[in-house]
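Figure 6 in text form: structure in, sequence out.
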């Protein structure tokens, strides 16, 4: 079974969002790769490098009759008052419609789709964000030093979160 089909059957899904060709915007895919290849990811979890196709995957999840219990989005954001490389949980309710323009979320999945999954689909949605230090306007692959240092910490945080989303044993 490939990761795309597991997206609909796994109890927990991690989507690494962003574009590795644009500096710190590649944080989500980098974390997804580290989690899938270097960490002991639980069997009930599906990790997908969504890249810039996260909105398409989320739309498919919204339409699917089968949904995960939990969905973790990993992405880089630029917000005032945060330090580059700082990791934090960004609640959906913390992204008010009037304030979305305050975020420079490169390729960030549609907040409306995330809200629909949470409210209508019963999916626990959580966004693990890193404060980007550098998202260029031109092709420049590679994470900044501060964001690269956050990758192993993000993996640890996600492993703990995934452990709490284990399916109940019958």
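Output sequence:
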């Amino acid at each position: 079974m490939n990761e795309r089909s597991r997206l609909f059957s796994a109890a927990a899904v991690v989507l690494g969002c962003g574009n590795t060709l644009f500096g710190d915007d590649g944080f989500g895919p980098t974390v997804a790769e580290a989690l899938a290849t270097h960490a002991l990811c639980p069997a009930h979890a599906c990790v997908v490098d969504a890249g810039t196709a996260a909105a398409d995957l989320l739309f498919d999840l919204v339409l699917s009759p089968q949904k995960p219990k939990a969905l973790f989005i990993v992405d880089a954001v630029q917000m005032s008052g945060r330090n580059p490389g700082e990791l934090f949980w960004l609640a959906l309710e913390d992204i008010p419609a009037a304030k979305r323009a305050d975020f420079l979320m490169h390729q960030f999945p549609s907040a409306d789709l995330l809200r629909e999954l949470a409210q209508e689909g019963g999916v626990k949605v959580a966004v693990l964000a890193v404060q980007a230090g550098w998202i260029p306007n031109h092709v420049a692959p590679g994470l900044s030093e501060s964001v690269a240092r956050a990758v192993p910490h993000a993996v640890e945080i996600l492993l703990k979160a995934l452990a709490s989303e284990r399916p109940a044993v019958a």
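Caption detail: The beta strands are 12-17, 45-51, 70-77, 87-90, 124-131.
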